[in-house]
Write a structure and sequence with these properties.
Low-confidence stretches: 1-20
CATH topology of the largest domain: Beta-galactosidase, Chain A, domain 5
Strand content: 35-45%
Distance between the termini: 46 Å
CATH architecture of the largest domain: Distorted Sandwich
Largest sheet: 20 strands, antiparallel
Number of strands: 33
Bound molecules: cobalt (II) ion
Structural class: mainly beta
Radius of gyration: 26 Å
Mean pLDDT: 95
CATH class of the largest domain: Mainly Beta
Oligomer: single chain
Shape: globular
Number of domains: 3
Helix content: under 10%
CATH superfamily of the largest domain: Copper amine oxidase, catalytic domain
Length: 657
Amino acid sequence: MMDHAPNTTSKATSADTARHASHPLDPLAPQEIAAVTELVSARFGNGAPLRFERIEVKEPDKAQLRALEQGEPVAITREARFSIYRAGEIGVTEGIVDLDAGAITAHRDLPDARPMIMIEEFLAIEAAVKASPEFIAACKRRGVEDIDLVCVDPWSAGNFDVPGEEGKRLSHTFCWVRSRPHDNFYARPIEGLNAVVDVDSMSVLRVDDYYRDRTPPPLAQAESNYAARFFETYKPGGKPLDVVQSEGPSFTMEGNRLKWLGWDVRVGFNGREGLILHRIGFTENGVRRPVIARASIAEMVVPYGSPENAHHRKNVFDIGEYGLGKLANSLTLGCDCLGAIRYLDAHVNGIDGTPVTIGNAICIHEEDFGIGWKHWDFRTDETEVRRMRRLVISSISTVGNYEYASYWYLYQSGTIEFEMKATGIINTTGCEPGKPSRYGVEVMPGVVGQIHQHLFCARLDMEVDGPENTVLECNVVVPPKGPDNPHGNAFYEEQTLLTSEQAAKRRANQATMRYWKVINPGRRNAVGKPTSFKLEPLHAVTPFTDPDSPSGKRGGFMFEHLWVTPYHPDERYPAGEYVNHSKPGEGLPAWTAQDRSVENTDLVMWHVFGLHHPVRPEDFPVQPVVTCGFKLMPSGFFDRNPMIDLPPGANKGSCCV
Ligand code: CO
């Protein structure tokens, strides 16, 4: 968690004038973050030092936003949310700041809530563990003499009812040891040695050595490095493959509003979810039609399958327990991003409340996406072909050993896609060479990658042609053989209205080619049907965690591929607002227990998708990108192929070789 290249972060200078953002949905500017910190410090600053978990824009009321979009004169107060805690104390204070008035307008204490593990705490956790005499002694028993070469990853600790852990804010750590300075330490796991750190007092609560009375697996002997400096020769990488946009890209930006070939969207960002897309709409014939009010990846969980030693505790919620936004990379032109790139900086808060700017955190560009449609008329020998493009809005975060690269795509075909590219380093454990257990695969002698999953939850605040939407489930039905199916070929699609929250808790079903449609019952297309977008669960993962287990109860969202809730501004995160050490049942399971109606209303669709990851040797030392995601396709939203009237033409930069 400490060894990725440092971001080019900088402390923003505190401005003497609070410059207001240009739109109520824009992320907080550094000056606004500083203003919140100043107000909060003045109010709560007496006592133990304040720690700032989150400072973010409080998104305005949706009715006000709609009025604003329709040109009505509405005054929207610029507000911020904050969550703070105190060094050495449990509990969170959260509240609202009115930035226009310069006042804290609401706050409450949550004595049981535990804030996420902050990046500033990572190295302190490692230092605390490496100073523990018990830990040092356990390392020596394994032949690790140089503690400086030991690396300790600060995993979240979950909620496992372990005596002595109650009511604390902890990190349950795993450790590795380098062969020499700066090599890839994940090639040398120290198996079965876990220190539990009280993050508030930064002291070691307990050292669990699973090999106190038996021989641990030997330390792996070989190195496996990935940094360029470890390579003396390289294989051929190919000739230059340049993306040339001779007249520049086709998108424009006004503030955070991005417009591209009919699409428009507001780019947002916060420390927890990272990238957020607001107010996605498509304009045709001069009329703007809304599709999604807000889209983000609101939570994720990575359950590991091994019950051995302490590996059952690996069930990390990287968004709720660490924050993808805070861990966003500064992206590099020509490396992370190819072509004509527009970068946006992201502004988050540091643990002391100061604004931290992550330069070039968001990458915007367009890509050719092959042919969009084609037809050859064999009678007339006439061919029509049009190419298709997509607009890409992306951000990459490093959470410990893994990289999560988030890509939102808008297509000329009207499709909206999200793709998660997972890369980085698998979490490794040790085994006797040649003898991994059934819960993992040896990626090199003595180094194991355990079976695990990455389950993401998208929060899609839908607005297909307006806020009043309904979700339908579509399944294929085969009539029984007989009068209704005399030839045995018959099959058709049946649509079922998902009327309430309980009815809308759904799993994918490949056997019926199941998918879901978000319709606007009040808007009809050219064939008289409600306008709609469909969601196909292309990467539905079957979870294997027991729903009644300590991890299953905290990550209840993972057990359905679809949830639908009526919009509520406080229902933001599927595993709850404070996920670190959270109690069972928070988030989607609790909200949907109300079984509210989701028919013809302002609804939020939650889609769970992911990666099932039985590890391969090729995933080491750094995993090639693997992807998962989903598409929202127009399905009767347009009256015909929206690309049909694209102009013909041929790319002039292409040549024959
Ligand atoms: Co994985």
